[in-house]
Here is the input.
Amino acid sequence: MMESFMAIMIATIAVSCLYLTVAENQKNGREIELKTDRAYAYHVLTESNLDQVMVHDRIYEKAGHNYVYDRDAKQKFAVAG
Here is the structure.
């Protein structure tokens, strides 16, 4: 009986660890995608002299040297340049 309980505990811990790993990976992937989108938007805004550009359903505006303004998040973000 004790071996069965230990096996269930180990399986539960393994599934929990797998879930946390997948969830963090998706979160990190989304953050990287947003940073890439901001850099792309800044590049397009700089090269084409547009007032605003839409990238993946978000509208970006140029907000100074190496900065873009995300109208959806209502924040100004620095872009590595």
About this structure: The chain has a mean pLDDT of 93.
